[in-house]
Write a structure and sequence with these properties.
The complex is a heterodimer of chains A (about 200) and B (about 425).
Chain A (H helix, E strand, L loop, with lengths): L18 H12 L3 H8 L3 H11 L3 H18 L9 H14 L1 H4 L22 H19 L3 H12 L4 H8 L3 H18 L5
Chain B lengths: L9 H9 L9 H8 L1 H19 L7 H15 L20 H20 L24 H9 L39 H7 L12 H12 L5 H17 L12 H18 L7 H11 L2 H13 L1 H6 L2 H6 L6 H5 L3 H14 L2 H17 L1 H7 L8 H17 L3 H13 L8
Helix pairs in contact in B: 1-3, 4-5, 5-10, 5-11, 7-9, 8-10, 10-12, 16-17, 17-18, 17-19, 19-20
The chains are: A mainly alpha (about 200), B mainly alpha (about 425).
């Protein structure tokens, strides 16, 4: 892969690239500039990792999934035609990787869900509340984990990322209606399992 | 649970109110929601689910974490920064280096992990005990056995430290999850390696050549299946860790250390055949720098044997393995780089390192007496056996060096370190 000198890349003061900047970085990254790829991907990493966590069992597996996805994205970047947004494209790579049979593996038994020790800000402030929040977290994680990957991804992108059905459909490579049904079905299943929490 | 309402309009209502589905233009939806308590509850519960999911999901990531995640790609793509000429042929297309770089970053991590989490100490003569033994194969390091076999080390026959490498488990070591001989094995996965590395993630090992090396290596040690091998590795780790013997005895190569050594040899082979890129040696240099003790010496020996690769290696690796020929080049760099190189040489921890460090000091002190003064502190960190080596080396150089300046520097250093017994 040829490398273009990255010094010529425009720099964003905010860290989030504007349309023009994004296009410039994308072109440079497609020409083999690793720094441009870094700039494109870095602002999205948190969101990508969040999806990976949702689709994986544990933080380690999530990071592994993300890294594999990044490498695939980097290798396949030259073939990215901008028919969808860059973030949709990355998410679709992660979704496809997570859907691979070898990654799905055996499902966990109830109560075996790994929950991070860290309680996200805003969910619990005092110790007592934290205990119940941990239980809530565990149950939500468990319920999510029981969902098929497609529904999990659809609901995550809708509820957490706030994406519309159209963009989600590009990630899942399916129709808008199918996405809508996936999201609704996922919510219905969660309501069944978490009824007493809601 | 059967508490859910089954209103036929529920899907429309939810899509309309929660997801702002623009395709639903039914004005009656709103009025339906006012009348249908089950749909109202569905909307409320779904909102709470969305809120819960959003609240428990962290989408922020630290810069450090982001850099860690992207370091893989840098390893693949970054151009080497060293200024020395490159003697290697370009890598072939099918060996783009991405997965190798991934594996090698894993290797760097593995070397740290092997040091931190696996005490890799044992005792005894190297003969195994029962199921717990790694086998007589372990009495030679993998690298040494392979070098001997493939002829790459003809000029320097492999040493056979029979008594220094190998495990002898405590008598009470038990394995609770043995696989039966002949049972079908499965491919190693990261889960297996996770277990073997004590639950800590070793990035990038999945589907890498390193895994195949691991399988070959472990099969070579007499284990029936890779799965069984890894399970035993984990049991071995626990047994060794909990044993009082872990704190005593000579440093030995753990099974994972041997993986690292095997992988190092593989990379050097790839370099020799032109299938690896020079930039990958940066990762190897990092792996060598991070490793300690016996593993480090094994890696250093292995790299030094491959003179061709070392000559073409980045200065970081040359410093890490104490390659004296690099000193002149290193001494021309900024002093911070010189310091880093000196630290890398010090960490090599062998007799050659002392000479190499002295050589670097003389190069630096010859160029700048001020920097020479500052650089003397390098020698304060030496341990007693190394100081004895240093004293001999200084005395030899003070006597035999053709350069007057070097003679003086050696004598002054001898005096400063209190190593001079009498001035010649």
């Amino acid at each position: 892969m040829q490398h273009e000198p990255s010094e010529s890349l425009p720099v964003s003061s905010t860290g989030n690239p504007s349309g023009k900047l994004h296009s410039a970085w994308l072109a440079a990254a497609q020409a083999g500039d690793a720094e441009a790829f870094d700039r494109l991907v870095r602002p999205l990493l948190g969101n990508l990792l969040a999806l990976c966590r949702r689709l994986s069992k544990g933080d380690a597996a999530a990071e592994e999934l993300l890294q594999e996805g990044l490498i695939r994205a980097h290798r396949g970047l030259a073939g990215f035609r901008a028919e969808s947004s860059f973030r949709s494209w990355l998410m679709s790579i992660l979704y496809r990787l997570a859907s691979a049979p070898e990654r799905l593996g055996p499902r966990r038994l109830p109560g075996q869900v790994a929950v991070s020790d860290e309680i996200p800000d805003g969910l619990a402030s005092d110790p007592l509340e934290r205990v119940s929040s941990r239980d809530t977290l565990r149950r939500v994680e468990e319920a999510m984990e029981r969902l098929p990957v497609r529904q999990r991804t659809a609901l995550h992108l809708r509820a957490v990322e706030g994406w519309g059905y159209d963009e989600i459909s590009r990630v899942l490579d399916t129709s808008r209606g199918a996405v809508r049904n996936s999201v609704l079905d996922a919510r219905r299943r969660l309501r069944e399992r978490l009824g007493d929490l809601l | 649970m059967s508490r859910l309402p089954q209103c036929p309009h529920e899907a429309h209502v939810l899509a309309h109110f929660l997801d702002a589905d623009a395709s639903i233009h039914d004005a009656s939806v709103a009025s339906h929601l006012e009348q249908c308590s089950s749909c109202a509850r569905a909307v409320e519960e779904s909102r709470r689910i969305d809120a819960l999911l959003a609240a428990q999901t962290q989408t922020e990531i630290s810069d450090e974490k982001a850099s860690d995640l992207l370091a893989f790609l840098r390893g693949v793509e970054s151009e080497p920064v060293e200024c020395e000429p490159v003697a290697l042929t370009p890598a072939r297309e099918e060996h783009s280096g991405a997965w190798r770089a991934v594996a090698w970053l894993g290797l760097a991590a593995a070397s740290v992990l092997a040091f931190v989490w696996w005490p890799s100490s044992g005792h005894g003569s190297g003969h195994g005990v029962g199921d717990g033994r790694i086998g007589d194969n372990a009495s030679h390091s993998v690298a040494e056995r392979r070098v001997g076999r493939n002829g790459a080390g003809k000029s320097e026959p492999a040493k056979s430290p029979r008594a220094s490498v190998g495990y002898r488990l405590p008598r009470d070591a038990r394995f609770t999850m043995l696989t039966r001989k002949g049972s079908p094995g499965r491919k190693l996965t990261n889960e297996d390696l996770l277990a073997a590395f004590g639950g800590h993630w070793v990035s990038g090992l999945d589907r890498s050549r390193l895994l195949r090396e691991a399988e070959t290596l472990l099969r070579g040690h007499g284990y029936d299946t890779p799965r069984g091998s890894i399970l035993r590795l984990d049991a071995l780790r626990q047994a060794v860790r909990s044993s009082a013997a872990a704190a005593v005895g000579p440093r030995r190569l753990s099974a994972q250390d041997r993986l690292i050594v095997a992988a190092t040899e593989w990379l050097l082979g790839e370099l020799r055949s032109g299938r690896a890129e020079r930039s990958e040696l940066e990762l190897l240099a990092d792996g060598v720098s991070r490793s300690r003790g016996y593993l480090r010496r094994q890696l250093v020996d292995l790299v030094r044997r491959d003179r061709e690769s070392v000559a073409a290696a980045p200065l970081t690796l040359r410093a890490a393995v104490g390659d004296m020929r690099a000193n002149r080049l290193i001494a021309r760099r900024s002093y911070s780089e010189v310091q880093r190189a000196a630290l890398a040489i010090l960490q090599t921890g062998d007799a050659q390192a002392v000479d190499c460090l002295l050589d670097l000091y003389l190069e630096v002190a010859s160029r700048s007496s001020a920097l020479g003064e500052v650089s003397r502190v390098w020698f304060d960190a030496l341990e007693r056996p190394q100081r004895q080596t240093l004293a001999r080396s200084l005395a030899d150089r003070a006597r035999a060096s053709p350069q007057r300046l070097h003679k003086d520097l050696c004598e002054r250093l001898l005096a400063r370190l209190g190593l001079a017994t009498s001035k010649p």
